[in-house]
Structures are given as structure tokens and as C-alpha cells.
């Protein structure tokens, strides 16, 4: 027998079975792959299928809600929405991208690279490419695992924004489906067919100018398109006085959400609820005109009312500017508060910034803070400028803290106002010698030691107090934690308790604590703590938001010291003013108490010998305080003390507030309260674009016309004075000119008689003139006289009387 045939005979059945098994395995694997692909196609990839279909057929366009207005306590508008335009581009409709990018860059001041990126963005919705795809062909197409490529119900879709290599995708699928490569590539690289925001809050006239400049016309001169430009209604925030109360109000960002100030802290209240409109679109993403839109109207944000009084705020802003100019400071901050309620009626800091142009670094801030800004980016510099010094500036309070030390010791009964302490010019504490800057005083009472700001005397007072008890008073006065005022960026300050090796109190640290050294506070903390001392011992949380807005009364005050201790401390603080001849003269018979402070700045781990913080806290009347004022100067010029730099500003400011509060409520026959609570006042429109001015007038319901003899895009004059009461039977006439026509030339000085400080300032500012204030109340005389022709930028000195 042939051996070969014999071997084949012996292994034949087994080999045949093996071959059959191998074939079955291969076929099974193929079947599994096909089933897997079909499962992936019909089950896995169908997840969200309904949503994708809706997304393909329905476009959703958001509608921005108008923000609520911000008012002062007298219902004067401080911040309001006005009409603007959002400049958008539909990339799919752009015919000349280079021309468009250049136009937008030059007109809007944007980087051309950023614009090019936006106008070339790819479609982020699915695009229908081809129908009638068999399941087998679908498996082959999907086997490439291209991102952004799907097949559903026999239809091929692309999502261009997710396709990384459109050439590879078009090439492969063209072969798979025997389909046109160019068509596939066009679909894979399709541009976005919905508006892409280039810049919001654009002036209406400028936006229209941009659109018209991009018009593309046919041979007959008919406009075919606007090169992809799409203008949509928008809002922009209008702050009535630019720099006015900038650290209180804050501003809105490019997305129209609040940044800083109450715009940020009350974002949820002011922002409202955006609306949306839905409309049906075709396969190319174009709106189908005949289809009905579904509209969800936006809900306007709620208004808020602040506790500040615009007139007193203006007084405070003028006061800090004058102090800064006199003492060449880094910054000056003033807070005016109702002593009993904790309501802030004014909070001013200089330098400040323009709320209508918040992304430009203020030149004055850049100059005074140059050392702090070195090496910082533009964004970091702006962030420094936005800090509200009233709540974020941390410094050692110095001698103003002595009133708190004295109040705690009096309350605990370890001293009385007549207890005698001794000042020999210095005092030895451990290895340290503590000097008296105003002594030696010899034997003096506790009352006089505090009034004369005697450091050795204060050391002897604090040594009579149990440290644990004293520190508890410090915490009860609100130091070492934020006050909770409704402003962003508030700091907690620092209360140090240095211990010895055996756990005891460091005696030098404790001693210096008595006169405000070794701890850090913010202006809002110290004024609230001192208010507690003079307000019959009640600590009231400071607030910038009226109870009308909050819908509830303020938190119940906490009594920290007794009425008797408070009365005794008020009398001590009356002596502070009474013992100083200059402060007595400045007080002009007003009942004022206060406390000065002068402290070296703690920089890089040591006390500076050349940089100081001076401050003064005062309240009036001493018998029953209505207002309290705190002024702090950061790094004034050499020779400045609290009594010479901060005190004159604070005393002048508290007198103005008292005079204003007691002034006659009738001006020119009209009741002030009625004017403030509903009568329309004429806004300052000089320098504004005509479209912007028109939107403000329409919102206020003021009738107006444009002088036909004038032309231009900017309001250069208006027939009705700023802040005057609008007569519905009259008509406001606006004269137009070019932007540069408002920057130079002459103007006629208006008659300011009978106007408040704020009203006079607004009118003069609108005319390009500067107000110089003498006295308080309402304008009684002025220099130059009304109707005098002067150069823009000139000073107008106005005397105000109650």
C-alpha cells in the first residue's frame, strides 16, 4: 500500500473536521463583527438620536434679559440699561474674510487674529451629507472611526467642528460610497451658519456703520449680502456719572454679568432671567420663514435701592480728592455712616475709575500705585484698580483703636474716667521701651490719657484687663472677621495673639495692642467698631443695601458695652476735638467727638520709617450721634498726622452731611422729596452718541428733537439743563457735532442758583467745567456769573448755603 495514500486515509476525516471548525470560527467572528457594528449603529449611536434630530431641525437663540436699575436712597438712578448692538458674524455667509477682519479690527479695536479665528469657526451642529446609505456601506464608513462622522437611519452626517482631518475623511468616504470628493470636503469644512459674537454693547451708530461698510453689491448695485455681518439687539450698562461711586456700584463684563461692587454681589437679583426663541431650520441650517416661532420672553431683573445718598456721596468724593491733592497720597478713603442704623450713606476712594470705561487703567491710579503695579500684566493691574479700599485695605489702625481699649476697660470696671495713670514720656515693658509721641504728661486721668493719645497711659490701662477678656471685646467689636457688608472683596483683617514659650501672653505684643499696633483692620471694620462704642454700646452690621431691597429689617444689634460706658467714652472723644485748637476751630460750634490715628506701615516684615497711614473718626452730635465719618489716608506726604491730614477732611465732611440733612426741603418752589420720588429729571447727554442719547430719553419718556441746523453723531449741547425737572409740555433740543467738537472751545456759564451740590456738579461737568465748592446746602452765588463765556476746563466757584 502506498504510504502517502495510507497517511491521507488515516488523517482525512480529522483534517476535514478541523477545516470545517476553522471555517465556522471565521464565519462566527465575521458575524459577531457585523452584529457588533449593527448594534453600535442602531443602538449605541442612536443614544440622543432624538436630541440630534431636534438640534438639526430647530435653532435656539437666547434673548438677553435687561438688568434691573440701581438707585440711591432718594431713587436717583445710578445705573441703568440702555440700547446697544451686538455685532455678530455668520461665518458661513462670509464672502470676503480678509476685508471683514480688517474692518472689524479697525472699527472695534480688536486684534485681527482673534477676529479671523471667530469668522472661520466650523459648524458645531450635525450636517446632513448623503441619504440612502445601506447597512453594509454604513459599517464600512464607520469602520474608519472618524471623529465627527455618524450614520443614522441610512443618512450620513458630519459634525465639522469635530472633524480633525477633513481631507482624509472626504477621500476615504468618497471611495467607500463612490461619491464626489469635493461635496464631501465642503460638508466636512462647512463654516458655522449661526451668529458668532464678535463684540457686544457696541454703539448703535457704529454697528450700523460697520454693517453698511461691508455691503456686497451685484452688477446692478443691489445689495447681495453684508459679508456675514449680523446685528442683534443688545444692552449696555449706563452709569450716570462715570466715576461716581465706582467702588460701590461695580460694573458688568462682556457677558453682561456683574463684576465687582453691588453689580456682582446682587447679580442674582439684577440679572433677571434670559428668554429664548425657537425656530425651524432647513438641512443647511437656514431659518424657514414660514414656520411659527416659539418665544419665551425674558424676565427683566429686579431693581435695587442703595443706602447711599448721592449728594453726600458727591461731598465725600470731593473731600477725598482735595485731601489727596493736598497730601500727595497713594489713596484716600472716606466712609459716612448713619451711626444708629449702620447704613452707609457715602463711601468714596480716590483714585477711582470710570464705570463706563472700566477696562482702561486710570492714569491717576497708575501713577500713585506705580510700585505695586511693576511687573504685573494689564489684567493684574486692572484687578488692583478694582479693589475697594474701604473693605479691602488692611492696615494697623493706630490711635483710633485707643477708644476701643478704653471702652473695654471702663466696661469691665478696672478703671474709671478719673483713674490716674502716669506718663514720664516712655514706659519699659520687658526688653522694650514704648515712647509717648505727645508727652510726657505726668499724672493724668484715663480720660485725658486717651484724649491726648498717650501710649504709656494706654499700656497701663490694658495691663489692668485680663487678656482673654480684652481679646473677646476685640472680637465682639467685629475685628478679625468680615463685617458682611454687601460688597465684594472684603478682607477679615488680622488679630494676632502672640504667646510666650510657656503659653502665656507676650507682654510686649499685648502692650502695643492697646494703642492699635500688632493688629490689622479695614476701614469698614474700624468705623463699625467705633460706632458701637458711641452708639450706646450697640454693634450694628454695616450695610449698603436698603431694607426696601432686602425686604426685611437689618439684623438686631448686639449690645457690647453699656449705655453708661458709651456715654463716658463719647465725652472722652469730645475732649479729643476740644483739646486741639485747630480741630476746635474747624468744628465751628458743632458738637463733634472723634479720635485720631497715625501708624507706621508694616512692610516686608518691619515698620517703615517713611510711610504712614493717618486716620480720623468723628461723630456728631456727641449727645445723640446721627452721622459718623471715618477718613483714612494711605502714605500721605511727610509731616502728616491724623489730626492735621485726616481730621480736617472728616470734620468738614460731617458738617456738610449735617447741613444737608437739615436743609430746607423746598427748592425753587418744588418739594425736594417729590422731585426725588417720581418726577423725571433731565439726564446729562453732552458727549454721548445720538443713538445712545435717544435711547436714554425714550426710556425716561422725554420728548426731544435734533436741531436740523446741526450734523454729526455726538451731542454737543442740550436745551434743558442737566438734572432739571422735566416739564412734559416742553421739548428737549439736541445739537449735534463731531466727537472732537466737545473737547475744546468756549461755553456759557449756566445759572446754578438754588441747585444742590450734585446738580451743579453734573451740569458743569457736562459742559466741561470744574466745580469748586464753598459751604454746604444749595447754590447761593457763583463766580464767574451766569452767561459769562469761558474756556472749557475753567473753574466755577460756587458758594452753597443751607
TrEMBL record:
Domain PASTA residue range list: 676-738, 743-802
A Pfam family it matches: PASTA
One GO-annotated biological process of the protein: cell wall organization
Name of the protein in question: PASTA domain-containing protein
Sequence intervals crossing the membrane: 20-39
Similarity comment: family membership: Belongs to the transpeptidase family.
GO molecular function: penicillin binding
InterPro entries listed in its UniProt record: Beta-lactam/transpept, Beta-lactam/transpept-like, PASTA_dom, PBP_dimer, PBP_dimer_sf, PCN-bd_Tpept
Broad class of the protein's primary localization: membrane
GO cellular component terms, semicolon-separated: plasma membrane
Record key words, sorted: Membrane, Transmembrane, Transmembrane helix
Subcellular location: Membrane
